[in-house]
Every structure is written in structure tokens, then in C-alpha cells.
Please model this.
Amino acid sequence: MWFDRWKKQKQGAALTPPPGFGARDITTQSSVCTGETLVGFLDAQTGKLLQAVVVRSPADIAAFYRAYGYEPPRQK
Model:
């Protein structure tokens, strides 16, 4: 159906990373208290994560990379 084609085109659009940040700036941080893990762009000057998202599985990390148009790192 024509609607399915439009839906697929919308899903292919990548998000825009913060200015000056790239795939090498993506990192995860875990809370000592709650154990909650976040993935986002690490600002080296402030130590804060920008555009952070909660991670529940390794697939969430891969989805974060792909959402910004980057290839996720290979798991060891």
C-alpha cells in the first residue's frame, strides 16, 4: 500500500547529533545507586551526557548508534 512506502521513508531519516560531536563521543554511564544505564554524547568539558537515552539491553545501544547514522561497535 502507498502508506507503507511513506512510513518506511520516514523511518530512514537519521537524527542530528549535537554540533561538534560524532560516533567517537558516544558513551554509556551507569548510576551507582540505581544501576540505570544511559547512552549519549559525552561532553568532555562538562562531563555531562547530551541527548541521553535509557538503555535496557545491548540492542538499545545499537539502535542509538543507528538513529544517528553511525555503525554500532562490535560486541566482544
User: Anything to note?
Assistant: DSSP finds two helices and three strands in the chain.
